């Protein structure tokens, strides 16, 4: 997924397009205590209908009591809001979505992926079971002053999780800017007194910086609300273990990951799947392609699927296309027949990819592939500790030393560079493993290079799925590239021999934009590369101008931030309600606008 994790904070998330002046502000979700008080009896004829949509009986009873038995639209509006807000865990409730134990239920027993490296710190942090002092220190590290952090803890309570405390501070700061008398409502937000309603989706948004964006959002917000309703009306579909035995594994809400994780089948598999059913409303063109980490909190992929036309994810591990694991899920409406691989075919083992390491590789290091390549690397202090421990040990080392060394080597993707000496992969080695040209990120600091590469696509894997576009667009393709990063999608299309006649690239990191622009110029691309620096600035007007100049879009591609989804993020793994990962809804918003605009052509 092409996105830099540290470029933005939670105040950057803007979902104000969900509301306009013609629609009432979205209501507050009920407090946790209200949900715990038990289900109130209701004789409403609407109750079975809403229960069939997947809403809980308590939630439906609350909404009916508030809006009356006959107000279907208002009840549904409340239920949609309750459902979205319920995704944010509070206290110990809902913590099962975030604890490491969930990862044991996903059917993929390959423990090599770095996403599996969780510990109890994450569970305690999310559940609120940490001391006042630690929470105060964590909030200070997030950039809040000691007085502000202390006041938030005293106001909200010591048992409130860190992410909820941070949200309350953001909300208070917003309230102070907008004026008026505001009060904390006990549900992770502030509301204005004297009858003013509060929009839970915009309480921590940054001030709109895109000229003309607000009006265009208002124009399309009614359509977006209808799409939101359809997304929650859409029944859960059956998903399959793609590449496995093909048997259904249950409803989408109880999604299991396939093992092996080979999507619709590997290129060498004669029995690979060649056809699938796509809902009529999702059929291309324009085609779309969405990517994110496979190992997410429970319920994330079913939610993404509902918003993306009910299409089931295709889960693929890049270890079948390179020498490094990278478990990813993809939702797309592309054909799946006639796929082909990039050439030359990359090496798929460590020693084949880096033969110089063979001379120093100990026999007890049984690794054949690297784990998921991350945005950071092991420190020099760690590699020195490993060297000192091995020097002080016999040959071979005792089992406890081998276990410790192997754990660190797997976690940090260390490679043997001498006797008893390991080192992190160099940036150019990571570029090679991810399928980028050599020196693609050269010219920036090692830290920035690792960060940009760690958030990128694995080019060979994505190219295999995009390869069907070469025959569909022999004269070139027009691309909307969201969360472009360092250009993983563009590099994949270029290596496939697909000419890009026009690309609208949306990327928040100026470093990533520079890397992509440099590659575009150096490779002699003849098409036009247009750039927007924020998905929140991609409005109807921006898209209409591009379509007027170039005739439309053939492909919408991107992967929204995985910060609050990945297992390696122990502290803020909040699902799609997280500070960064909620940007997925902008992918959904923009895709919906594009498909509506293209339907006119």
Fold and architecture overview:
Helix content is 36%, strand content 10%. With 601 residues, it is an alpha/beta fold. It is built from 21 helices and 13 strands. The chain has helices at 32-36, 47-52, 57-67, 72-86, 120-127, 132-141, 146-156, 162-178, 213-233, 300-307, 350-353, 380-391, 399-412, 427-434, 446-454, 459-466, 469-472, 488-495, 510-522, 540-550, 584-598; strands at residues 182-184, 190-192, 238-240, 248-251, 287-293, 314-317, 327-332, 414-418, 421-424, 477-482, 500-506, 528-532, 555-558. The two termini are 31 Å apart. Residues 1-12, 94-116 have a biased composition (Acidic residues). GO terms for molecular function: DNA (cytosine-5-)-methyltransferase activity; DNA binding. It comes from Rhynchospora pubera.
Helix content: 25-40%
Strand content: 5-15%
The main sheet orders its strands as 6-7-5-13-10-11-12
Q: What is the chains' assembly state?
A: single chain
**Unreliable sequence segments:** 1-43, 87-130, 177-209, 211-221, 236-254
At a glance:
This protein has 601 residues and is an alpha/beta fold.
Characteristics:
alpha/beta, 601 residues, 21 helices, disordered N terminus, two-stranded antiparallel ribbon, seven-stranded mixed β-sheet, SAM_MeTfrase_DRM, S-adenosyl-L-methionine
